[in-house]
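## Example pair
The file below holds two records. Each record gives the amino-acid sequence first, followed by its structure token line.
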Amino acid sequence: MMNEILNFRYLNNSVTDYLYAVLIFSLTFATLYLLRGFIFHRLKKLALKTKTDLDDFLVNLLSKIKAPEYQLISFYVAVHNLNTNALFNKILNYAVLIVLTYRATDIIIHIISYWLNKILTKKGMDNSSHITLISSSKIIFQIVLWAAALAFVLSNMGINVSAVITGLGIGGIAIALAAQNILGDLFNFFVILLDKPFKIGDFIITGDTLGCIKHIGLKSTKIRSLSGELIVISNTNLLSAKISNYKHMEKRRVVFKVGVIYQTTLEQLKKIPGIVKTIIEKTDKLVFDRGNLSEFGDFSIDFEFVYYVQDGDYTLHMKQKEEVFINIVEQFEKEGIEFAYPTQTLFVNKP
């Protein structure tokens, strides 16, 4: 009776064949899960001994392989011992091909993201630029890899991919010509983030535009101007112009002139460079460079002074400049020195 049951055939397979298939499925599924658990255990032990995040990354990759994928692989192995029709085999092969290609592509994308993350961290890129580049690069790599994965699947399904690619290539040339400005902006986006002529938060001047960088995008950069409006400039136009970045200014050179009236005495004229030098040297974060009588103007005797602010902050520069000018006015009043202003003297000869 038992032999009759075991030898009973259904769809060209005996009950014994089906039992063997179930056994193979169970053993394969259990082996895959045990292997996965063993690798998880080893990686966790490794994580306790190392400071690197590589083990955490590998654990994350393993966790992406879900139970249905293990079941599909186990089912694929088990079914190979059964007599099945061609259509069923083709459908099963396509299912395994699609699932494994999907998972492999997803893992490759995560590996590339991890690699980019490491490179940009070593370059010392700030967090906002870092996130922007990672997300933008990930989009590009995803498009390329998913397109390659689709071509791989179609090719293995017997579809002539060459003809499809040729057709897309002709269309792609037309699209590329129409979208060359967009591609140029995209390329310059990577130039900005890798070469770092500026970053988010920097104050720049380019052409007649000046303001603070608020966002660096794939196609354009947004600048908040001093008057408050948001200015959007394409990356290509921005990099094609001269850019002055004041964020990285370590010190600022300041040149100013002081004009006094021609009635100023010689003794007072000789005192002026020393007076201004003393004022500048007493002001915090200022370094005196030079002070000279520079020229005789139409209505004044002009002195030129140069000093350096040991800080790039514009607000500090204006505060210190105001302090210097007020102290100059105060000292000139004490010395009886008068500032010049535009005047004309008319001499009348009487007969």
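Second record, same layout:
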Amino acid sequence: MSKVIVSTLYDSDVFKMACRQFDKAADAISLPEAIRDRTKYPRRCLAVALPVKRDDGSVTVFEGYRVQHNLSTGPAKGGIRFHQSVTIGEVAALAMWMSWKCSLAGLPYGGAKGGVVVDPNQLSPTELEHLSRRYMQEMVNFLGPQVDVPAPDVGTNEKIMGWMMDTYSNHVGHISPAIVTGKPISLGGSQGRREATGAGIAYFVKKYLEDLKIPVGKATVAVQGFGNVGSETALALQNYGAKIIAISDYTGGIYNPKGIDIKKALAYVQYARVLKDFSGGEPITNEQLLELKCTVLAPCALERVITEKNAGKLKCRILAEGANGPTTNGADKILDQREEIELIPDIMCNSGGVVVSYFEWLQNLQNYYWSRDEVMEKLYVILDRTKDAVEYQKRKFKFNRRLAALTLGIGRVAEAKAARGLFP
């Protein structure tokens, strides 16, 4: 008889949300009790203190985490988040979703995630470098090209990945580009990696618009979040011909029913660092953006923004989850009753980033590099395969699309764990 674990280490709303998703999927495919807890709970976690010398000579100690959820299907894979609201529970939930995402896409990876409790905007470039290198130094014995391969996430970027690769390489005594993905091209990064997540979201949106027989040129799009994922999603959809009517970041949003010039918005943000006071439309709040009438709503910021309070007020035809976990369990129940909204769930919708991270890792290991066209062509093949598998699962078992995606991802991880057995 399997003993059920009740974990208190990761206690948080977002971890409980991920666990409820798992439980629903496990019940749907009658996952045996003997394998459930092994598949559900993280394999291991690490919490570290990160002392950093500030520019004024003082020392601040930051807290950092790394959660490795699954190591049964390959080295763990997942981003590192620098954000002031990071908790170990949030990191654990994100690591769980990475496990299902990698498995769903057919990648030979487990899931992991990292985080540091810090507002990176409050650090100077030198302090940010010191923090990034210190994080890698503290984690160095738990990471490796065949153990755990980090990538950028909220608050981190390719420059930070470059610092972390250099730190690890100095530790092992030789250059090791495969230790992280999302690096600068000059350090072994992949063509197409920076825009991969947004390009993948836009590709899925285009495919589902085609299924609904809605011309992409007549589609209106609202994107919450204008970091790497949101901005690249907006840019790719605009290049497909869609009209972007609203964008936002943490300072607020911009609405223009005639369409926003995304290239101008990107140029403004590069200069001002935030969207606030951008003149491309009228100001709106993030909450108002979610309730705009549009063809496509793409939440591409943080988790749990679509809740029981606003799920009934959405006026979109397609909900494309660019962020991880943007929809709460309660909101899911409401959306499940709204047949007019087509959901593209997060572990499917935003998987383009980890797919091209996989390509980057492969290129690093073999020291042979592909062109951008080759990368994007290979990406779209995997995204098409993922969409076909999810749609088949959805039809076969009469699941909604989130449950179809989760049962596929979770089922494959559970199958691998069962096949490997338990080490005595």
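Notes on the second record: Residues 194-349 form a domain with the Rossmann fold fold (CATH 3.40.50.720). The first strand starts at residue 44 and ends at 53.
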